[in-house]
Design a protein that fits this description.
Strand content: 5-15%
CATH superfamily of the largest domain: Alkaline Phosphatase, subunit A
Number of domains: 2
Largest sheet: 7 strands, mixed
CATH class of the largest domain: Alpha Beta
Structural class: alpha/beta
CATH architecture of the largest domain: 3-Layer(aba) Sandwich
Shape: elongated
């Protein structure tokens, strides 16, 4: 590289590394790292506010310690030590909080706080009392900070490009059907109650008899697939499959055992064959905010979300707080309540309140609703109030089962009220599908996990349904019955996989064969 006068410009890398900029690197790293590992779950924009606050905090620390130590090198070292302690506290707390000694939890805030405060005081004292050689320690910390930032920075920088590739792949691999709409265009409601189990599971294992809810649907003309299983055990895979009315391995060759990359699934959910086919036929897409980037169709014709509070924390910020020293304040405020639960509650109530009030949209509409209920986090009691307390001594799994049951009771009661109003407010009788993307998520057998709710309101066309239908065939039946298609029904497979290896499947048999096709 040359200057205007032709003389070479030399970049003194070792000299640059001698400047104490490492506090900025250590201040940014925890935020970039958390965003990198959650990039497919939350919006990239959630990172900007905490990143700015972290950098502002670094400036304040540097100026404060510069006044105390009268030396920039020492000020930088002290700042970095405190940043490491601040951002590591929550991680250590999470890792150690379950350790017991004779049944006593020994690593709680009351034991860790003195250790952290003592460690911080010792670090500051050591910085104050020792002479520091700038070229050695400063360069070492700078190099360490840069090394830490390489991977998350690469992941974040490459994600938009990878996302565009995924959307392109989804566009090529998901087809657009030419739908026949000569016989009318009924509104289509696809309502996902995340983790809602089949009626026999709810009754036998959770003590909840939802027959009143199901009978009310039957009275309206719904078909209840009482032997249904989900095709997959995880939401992203399940919805990518049902919205493209095909099995995942038919959508692309990247879904193979040994990989846990779910990023491309978001493209198949957001730009599914179902959505593209309906929009090509003149339908408007209506979607609700979910808090999960991969099911938020924020480019829909009508994207409905609670009025945002610009000062309220988002999910990513709650996650960050959980991993830092600020967790102490959050835990004191929330007690046993999970951080960010009020956001789930607000979005769920918003969708439930608006779902039967969409008649102002005069065009035919495809309404996609993903409700994170009865799936955790547990934010509703059985009547919609706060989560109810459980008896002292209740095990963690028993507590989760009770709270899951309460949320299933609540959402069942709300849907019992909402569905008749949707039908009554529709000029043309609508198509309504209410499904659990999979069964209960609380600890249990794989077989239980796959037993899902699956009910259909198909006016005049219920004859095509059968008790063991799985979500992959849902829209094959609907397109054949209403839109002049001749799609072959696929074998109803139930493919269980663990979260760690999502594309390594174990095929589970359907032991319930009542009225199967």
């Amino acid at each position: 590289m040359k200057s205007k006068k032709g003389r070479p410009i030399r970049i003194n890398l070792s000299g640059m590394l001698g400047y104490p900029f490492h506090p900025f690197l250590f201040g940014m790293y925890p935020i970039l790292y958390q965003m990198a590992i959650n990039i497919s779950e939350v919006s990239l924009s959630y990172m900007y506010r905490p990143l700015l606050l972290a950098l502002a905090g670094v400036v304040v620390l540097l100026l404060l310690f510069r006044i105390i130590y009268r030396d920039w090198t020492k000020a930088a070292l002290a700042s970095t030590f405190l940043l490491v302690l601040f951002f590591s506290y929550g991680h250590v707390y999470i890792a150690l909080k379950g350790i017991t000694l004779d049944g006593l939890l020994i690593f709680r805030h009351r034991t860790l706080i003195p250790i952290w405060v003592g460690g911080g005081a010792l670090a500051l004292w050591q910085v104050a009392r020792k002479s520091v050689t700038r070229s050695t320690l400063t360069s070492m910390f700078n190099v360490a900070g840069l090394f830490l930032l390489v991977m998350p920075a690469y992941q974040l920088a490459s994600y938009p490009f990878q996302s565009r590739l995924s959307q392109s792949a989804a566009g090529k691999d998901s087809r657009t059907l030419s739908l026949n709409v000569d016989h009318g265009t009924p509104d289509i409601y696809y309502i996902i109650l995340d983790g809602y189990g089949r009626s026999d599971v709810l009754k036998q294992e959770f003590g909840f008899d939802n027959s009143d809810f199901l009978n009310s649907l039957k009275d309206l003309g719904f078909y209840v697939a009482d032997c249904s299983l989900s095709n997959y055990a995880q939401t992203q895979i399940s919805l990518a499959s049902s919205l493209n009315f095909n099995y995942i391995d038919e959508l692309g060759d990247q879904f193979v055992p040994g990989t846990d990359d779910r990023g491309v699934l978001a493209a198949f959910i957001k730009h599914s064959a179902l959505r593209k086919s309906l929009e090509a036929a003149g339908y408007k897409t209506v979607a609700f905010a979910t808090g999960f980037d991969w099911t938020q169709l924020d480019d829909a014709d009508y994207y409905l979300s609670p009025q945002p509070n610009s000062f309220a924390l988002n999910e990513f910020e709650y996650l960050l707080i959980d991993t830092t020293f600020a967790r102490i304040i959050q835990d004191a405020r929330l007690g046993e309540q999970e951080a960010g639960t009020e956001l789930y509650r607000e979005r769920t109530l918003f969708a439930l309140d608006k779902l039967d009030k969409l008649s102002y949209i005069k065009d035919p509409k495809f309404v996609f609703v993903h409700l994170i209920i009865p799936h955790p986090p547990f934010v509703f009691g059985p009547t919609g109030g706060p989560v109810e307390s459980v008896p002292v001594g209740t095990t963690k799994s028993a507590k989760a089962a009770m709270q899951y049951r309460d949320q299933a009771i609540y959402v069942s009661s709300r849907m019992k009220e909402i569905v008749p109003r949707i039908i009554a407010n529709s000029v043309i009788p609508p198509i309504i599908v209410i499904q659990g993307d999979h069964g209960p998520t609380v600890p249990g057998s794989p077989q239980r996990r796959m037993k899902n709710l699956n009910v259909y309101y198909l006016p005049g066309s219920n004859a095509s349904l059968y008790s063991t239908i799985t979500p992959v065939n849902t829209f094959r039946v609907i397109f054949n019955s209403y839109f002049g298609q001749h799609l072959e029904l696929l074998d109803d497979l139930s493919l269980y996989s663990s979260y760690d290896d999502p594309f390594l499947y174990k095929s589970l048999p359907n032991l319930c064969t009542k009225n199967s096709r």
